[in-house]
Amino acid sequence: MALVALSIVTVLLVTYPFTSVADVTFAEEDANLSSPEIIHKYGYNSEVHNIETQDGYLIELHRIRASPVFGAADSNKLPVLLMHGLMGSSADWILIGPEESLPYLLSDRGHDVWLGNTRGNRYGRNHTHLPPEEREFWDFTFHEIGLYDLPAMVDHVLVQTGQSQLHYIGHSQGTTMFFVLNSLRPEYNRKFRLMHALAPAVFLSHLQNPLLRFLAQHETSIMHFIHTFGIFEVKPFPEDLNRLAKTLCPDFYSRALCLDAMHIMTGNKYQHMAQLGFPMLLRHVPAGCSLKQVAHFGQAVTSGHFRPYDYGTEENRRRYAGSDVPPDYDLTKVTVPVVIFYGLGDQLTHPADVRELAGKLPNLVALNQLPNVTFNHLDFLLAGDAKDALYDSIIGNVEQA
């Protein structure tokens, strides 16, 4: 578990450079606010919707219903649902502020915007009868999230808005769950007008990050070791870690030096990141998830398949109609029009894996490679140039579909 935590800390610390004290102040102010509170702070109408999944998990949907620029959303426009990636939350989409973040930009043009959350993150730690202290609460992967969480959110949005379809934008695991749902329950295809897949995490055999590849290759033994300590979740960073970070890097200048040191140690440098303070990031990322969820992605790395969780031969035979291995998700059943965006600097979703996904989709609208060769996995959410590089195109697609 320490190795996993260290890898997360390392990614965060090397990811977010600072160039002004104002940026740090902005982050400090927002660090202790929830997603709805941050949205409200910048003058947008914020709503919290509580929904229950078919298997009893209670999760929050966060809605932006009105903009200080446009006013109330245009009821004639289809709603837009955005889904975060692994260990993320609705906050992922709004960390770079009201002038740059995709949900605010959509709201400023009159769209009814919904930010989803998945079971296990800070907005999904409740259940009708299972407490989060119990192992059974954490017995899920992206399979259950796609099969239960996503349809519950989609149905709720459509009921609340009176629409029959919505636009969907997913980042990383936000795409994974979409393809799970529409392959297993193809009747849901008709509820999506257009899907934007940002850095889709479906096929992962070309994953380049050496630490994550090592963890994936030793997934079984690592999971067994961690479970012996009664650990079944990746928790949000505790306040003690926030205090430690502030102690080691108390001001703007020392934080910049700390980040430079982490760059030297890891070899990673992110060249597009918006200028945010890491108190904001340590507060909102990671937002929590199941360790089994992480292990499932590890299996995708080593197997090269997009399929349900592999329990081993004996249990697989019981769960999967006598098959020694889980059956692949049938992507030919995903008939929703899909637009894909990917980056050449992405160490998690490699272009070769993205192209494999594209080749299996029956209704691929476009496969877009971002022009800057250094654009990476988190730049889709946090790059200072994301609006020009990506978001303007997404908004244009939404408004033309």
UniProtKB/TrEMBL annotation:
<keyword id="KW-0442">Lipid degradation</keyword>
<dbReference type="InterPro" id="IPR025483">
    <property type="entry name" value="Lipase_euk"/>
</dbReference>
<dbReference type="GO" id="GO:0016788">
    <property type="term" value="F:hydrolase activity, acting on ester bonds"/>
</dbReference>
<dbReference type="Pfam" id="PF04083">
    <property type="entry name" value="Abhydro_lipase"/>
</dbReference>
<dbReference type="InterPro" id="IPR029058">
    <property type="entry name" value="AB_hydrolase_fold"/>
</dbReference>
<dbReference type="InterPro" id="IPR006693">
    <property type="entry name" value="AB_hydrolase_lipase"/>
</dbReference>
<comment type="similarity">
    <text>Belongs to the AB hydrolase superfamily. Lipase family.</text>
</comment>
<keyword id="KW-0325">Glycoprotein</keyword>
<feature type="active site" description="Charge relay system">
    <location>
        <position position="377"/>
    </location>
</feature>
<feature type="active site" description="Charge relay system">
    <location>
        <position position="346"/>
    </location>
</feature>
<dbReference type="GO" id="GO:0016042">
    <property type="term" value="P:lipid catabolic process"/>
</dbReference>
<keyword id="KW-0443">Lipid metabolism</keyword>
<protein>
    <recommendedName>
        <fullName>Lipase</fullName>
    </recommendedName>
</protein>
<keyword id="KW-0732">Signal</keyword>
<feature type="signal peptide">
    <location>
        <begin position="1"/>
        <end position="21"/>
    </location>
</feature>
<feature type="domain" description="Partial AB-hydrolase lipase">
    <location>
        <begin position="36"/>
        <end position="95"/>
    </location>
</feature>
<feature type="active site" description="Nucleophile">
    <location>
        <position position="172"/>
    </location>
</feature>
<keyword id="KW-0378">Hydrolase</keyword>
